[in-house]
Amino acid sequence: MYGKGLRTLSIATAAALAVSLTLVFFYAPLDADQGFVQKIFYLHVPLSIMALVGFVLGGVFAVLHLRSGEGRWDAHSYVSIHISVIFGVAVLITGSIWAKASWGHWWVWDEPTLVSFLIVFLMYATYYPFRYAIEDRARQARYASVFAILAGAFVPLNFIAVRMAQSLVHPRVFATADGGLPGSMMLTFLVSLLAMGLLWMTLVRLELTAKSASGQLKRLRRALDAPPRGEAPRIAPEVS
Amino acid sequence: MTPARLAFAAILGKDLRTELRTLQSLPAMALFAVTTFVIFRFGLDRTSLSGSLGAGVIWATLLFAAILGINRLFVAERADGGFDAIRLAPIDRTALFAAKAAALLVYLLALELVVVPVFAVFFLDSAAALPPLAAALLLADLGLAATGTLISSMAVNSRARDLLVPLVLLPLAVPLSIAATGALEPLLAVGGPGYHRFGTWLAVLALYDLVFLLVGYAVFDFLLED
Amino acid sequence: MPALPLDEAGKYVAGAYVVFVVLLVVYVAIMATKLQRIERELRELAGSAEQAKGSQGGGAGPGGSGRSRAEPGSPVADAPSEQPPVDETKPSSGPGHDLTPPGPDDGRADHVEGVPRV
Questions:
Q1: Per the structure, how many domains does chain B have?
Q2: Is residue C102 part of a domain?
Q3: pTM of the model
Q4: According to the model, what pLDDT value does residue A230 have?
Q5: CB proximity under 8 Å: A 11-50 to C
Q6: SS (H, E, C) chain A
């Protein structure tokens, strides 16, 4: 059920990524300030936007799960958060590389967006140990949904607080990322954003399909009365 | 009184009476905080604190001491079937959330009643900053009470109970910490309490409190489902 | 903010894109391993189900206690034997999704969605 359209989605993603890469390196002009290094922006920012969107979606699916009680929404919530955490790792590493190239330091506390993102990442990283510490599966799903909702509410508050904590003296490093982008850069950025969005959806679909297949396998095994496999019972959320 | 308010009062009363009688959390929290001050004195090699350093030390100490209490918040409910009692009673289960959060708030205020004067004696030159400090801490405690109650109620039903509360609560408390120390820092300035952006930070604290009290109110029912 | 000369800046940009690609490849590799395992288990299940069906048809009728759930007519018992045997070799397509399993005797189902819904 989840695997339907996965091939089309993957092809579209690959195409979009290819187009965006071409635009980044052959079409977008060099930034006057940062030069070639600015090209990281087309990778880093779309990844971060998709990660944050994914976290919010994780909260939305969690609300759906609590209201309907259907297990598939919990699976959607878990997978959304999971893929977004992976994207988050990429965001932090590429952000760090960009900081090193721009400022000469692997980490800068001056950049409020990056710092906020670090905190959000740390928050969602606790999702796994939290989830897996709860043994009863139904309760695990419910608590995880509550966590996703709490964390979703936390994200905007966090950005507000961190931004306010910035001393007003420091200039915004990535001011070029916001308004004032020339048209060609904006186009490249939007295509990159689209590509990352498609990538996110593809990976979520892929993960859901794999989970669904595992779940079906378990049902088959039980229905066939086949002997259970020797491995320890998995506690990750199940999809059937 | 409506049944919900009756339940609220009953649970709150029970908690406060129990704590008063057994004194299982508060003395430990207070002692922990005071000892932490001593560690900070030597760790930072300072005998007086002001500004951001002072704000950081007092807030971090209170936060970590609070976690000790939060860990223990629902232990009695879990051990003695309090959760089941609430589930069976014909009342709004959110009364449990409100009562426990209120109890936690009382514990935090009681903790500060002891710890903040000690902090002033150890590290501050004058007590002029204490009243506005107390106001800021009150708002911060409210946010801590809301989130602490939520996390604690989930952690108590898990395997790694004592681990989960610090793990999950600390990142959640980051915006709260930023706002609390933001408000406290100018209060502890060397020349005398300043109020730079005090109102703004209090507003952020209030926003945090509002958001998590509302979210807690909305989701607590689902936490108690069996 | 002086722009770095191209050869220096290039290292950082390359580094960032390499990190991205590596993460992606690692993820795909992990998913591939998972899918392989699912396939292997499916094959084993199909094998054991066929065996069960064979012994059930040949042996005593109602005595099969363990097999009573997989009664004939249940789609579960039938379906795995409907799966094409292991010489199915249509490769999974999908860019970057190299699901080629290392085992020499592995066949590959096209999509795991072929698993019948019970």
A1: 1
A2: yes
A3: 0.82
A4: 56
A5: 11, 13-14, 30-31, 33-37, 39-40, 43-44, 47
A6: CCCCCHHHHHHHHHHHHHHHHHHHHHCCCCECCCEHHHHHHHHHHHHHHHHHHHHHHHHHHHHHHHHHCCHHHHHHHHHHHHHHHHHHHHHHHHHHHHHHHHHCCCCCCCCHHHHHHHHHHHHHHCHHHHHHCCCCHHHHHHHHHHHHHHHHHHHHHHHHHHHHHCCCCCCCHHHHHCCCCCHHHHHHHHHHHHHHHHHHHHHHHHHHHHHHHHHHHHHHHHHCCCCCCCCCCCCCCCCC
